[in-house]
Structure formats: structure tokens, C-alpha cells
Amino acid sequence: MPQIRLSRRDPSSTPLPYTASPLLLFCRDISLFLRYIWAIPGILLPLNLGQTTPLDELYPSLGGLVSFSVQLALTIAQIAFLISIPVLLLLLLPTAWIIAYVFAGFALNYLICLKLLNGTERVLVSQVPVSSPSDHERECWFFINGVANSKYWLQNNIDQLAYSFGRKITGIHNRTSGLVFDLIECLIQRCFSYATGDIRSAYVLLKKQLLSPSCDKVVIILHSQGGIEGKVYTFGNAANHFNNPRQSSKCDLIVRSIRHIEHYANSQDAVSYLGVLHFTDVPNRYLGRLFIRPGSGHMMNQHYLDTMFTMGSDHRVLDSNPFMDMEVDMKLASNGYDGDCELSLLPVASLDSPTSKDSPKSRVHLVKDFSRLWQYRNGGSPDENPSLLD
């Protein structure tokens, strides 16, 4: 059976701190982007068109076809637009003409995205029926989408999340400007601490719920760009850091502001290359437990939820799937593993099993044993005092 090695983060690699000069950070990010530009087409792969379900991004529905076609056309047009600007400068055209051309290009792009992809609503709510137990009424679940996500795809995302976890999900739309412009915005956002509209909307909603006496738990699920007793779970995170300050200065009492953070990434996800997979080895740079699945793709439903929280025909998450059933090499556990969150579950080609089949007392640990988010599936809730999850 394929296995995953449980290992501590490697502190030997030290990229620039996120508090460095914004211009220097931006230049380094451009260099990082160019290094992995070959992997950008992998955002869509594998296509698996014959296995898509109605909530998947590439399912051949009218809304999905419109979203994909417009994104494809915008990607081609935006690349041509960006190339044309230095060409116009070299031709020594009047500055006023170039400014008017650039303004017209951005204005046309905005109108196309507004009418065909984004709409005017910033906040959406899942529309599928869920039978939530009464003890879930004091929970608030939020989702912020990533790059190149239309309103139609966001609705599908939160509907599948609602099915998967048996809760109503509130989606905060990180509006798209087209894939190329979204990636540029992502670099600006993380290098210059630029708060986009979805961040401002999320701040208002989260603050309201965190201060509300009717809410005991806030769960935030983030995808890609989108990075109290809070729980945060990210998929394909594109951020260059992820903080979780201590609430106590006492060395013997480590209590974080956010109770639980988990990051899920595909090992060949181009956006994850630029984010969590690149920065996770820096000490105290990326707080939270990291789960890396062998595979590619960046789309939330099709490449993450379908593979990590696979649903059956009844819209319930199956008790098993190839990723969650992968064995975990627990050699670290016998070498001082203390259950902290600074651990990564990394895919490896082959390993000798850490447990012996001849020993009935030995237990094989699976990925699902370490995932708190897995315990929320189908309306469940995790044990608040588990030995592996905390």
C-alpha cells in the first residue's frame, strides 16, 4: 500500500521574510512564478471529463461551459494585452494614447467579468438541503474561493462543502478578473499586504460571528488565493505565510489564537508551488499541519474535494478513499513526536511499513487519523481530546 512519511519541517531553506521590502518580495515572487510557469497548465489537469459530477468545475453544464469558455478567452486576451504594452512603448506612440489603451483594456475586462462571471453579489449561501443536528446551530462555516472562480463555480463549491460536512456554508466571493490578472493580483496581495474586496467582506462577517454570543465555533475553509475557537482549513494555499500567534508567553503552555489549522495540497499543484509547498519549510512561517496528496490539479471540487473527501451517489462522503487510506510512516513518533502542529504528511514512492503485520498490537496509522477536517464529514464532529489530531 502507498505510504506517506510524517516528518518535521526542514528549517534549512530560508526565503525572504514576508516583512521584507515589498518591492524585493515582488521581484522574488516574479522569479518564483517564472520558475514554475511550466506547471500553470496543470491547474486544469487531470481533466477526468468522463468522471465529472454536476458540481465539478468541468462538468458540461451551461454555467460551467460559460465560465470555462470566458476564462479561456480572457487568458489568451490578457497575455496578448500584456505583451502589447511594451510593444506600444517601443513604437514611441503618444503617452496619452497608451494610457487610454490600457484604461480601455482594463475597463473592458472588468465589464466582461462583471456580466459573465462575477455578478454583483459578494456573499452566497449553500442551497442544498442538509440535516444539521441541533448542536451545529452554534457553528458558523465560511468559504473563500481562489483564483479564476466565477459565481457559478463558487455556488457549486459551497454546495459540495455543505454536502460533505453537513453544515450550511457561507461563501465569500473572491471575484475573478481572469486567470492571468488573478495571478498578478495574488502576487500584489501577498507582497504589498493589499486587502481585496473579499478580504474586507470576510473581515466584517467573521468579526460579527466571533463577537456573537450565539456562535461558539467558526470554521474557515480557504482555497488558493482566498489564505474565538477558530478552525482554519486550506486547499492549495497560495499565501507566502500563515500566522497563528500564541495566546500565552509561557514556554510550557503553547495555546494558539486559532485552535486548529490544516493545509491540504496536491504535490503537483502549480499554485501550491507558489505558496504552501514553497514556504512551509520556513520555521514559524506556515503554521498548521500540512497534508500533501500525490497528484496534480488545483480546482476545489474536481481536484481536492473529489479526491480527499470523495462523495457517493447519495451525496455523503465515503468512509474510505485512496488518499485518506494511505499509511503514515510513524518513525518520527518513536523519535520524540509530541503531537504538535508543525508536521507535514509527505508522499513517498515506497517505504518499509513502520508496523509489523506479525504484531497484532501494532497499529497502522492512516492519513485520516491525523485529519480533523475528516472528522467533520457527513455532519460529524471531531473528538476534542484526540491523541493524534491535536
The proportion of strand residues reads 15-25%
Helix content: 25-40%
Please tally the helical runs, counting DSSP H or I stretches of 4 or more residues: 10
List unreliable stretches of 5+ residues.
Answer: 332-341, 349-361
> How many structural domains can be distinguished in the coordinates?
1
**Secondary-structure element sequence?**
EHHHEEHEHHEEEHHEHEEH
| Radius of gyration, taken over Cα atoms and rounded to an integer in Å | 22 Å
General form: globular
Q: Strand order, biggest sheet?
A: 2-4-3-5-6-7-8-10-1-9
Transmembrane segments: 32-50, 70-91, 98-117
Keywords: Membrane, Transmembrane, Transmembrane helix
Task: Describe it.
This protein is 34% helix and 15% strand. It is an alpha/beta fold. The protein has one domain. β3, α4 (151-165) and β4 form a beta-alpha-beta unit. The longest helix has 29 residues, at 62-90. The radius of gyration is 22 Å and the shape is globular. 37% of the residues are buried. The chain crosses the membrane at residues 32-50, 70-91, 98-117. Keywords: Membrane, Transmembrane, Transmembrane helix.
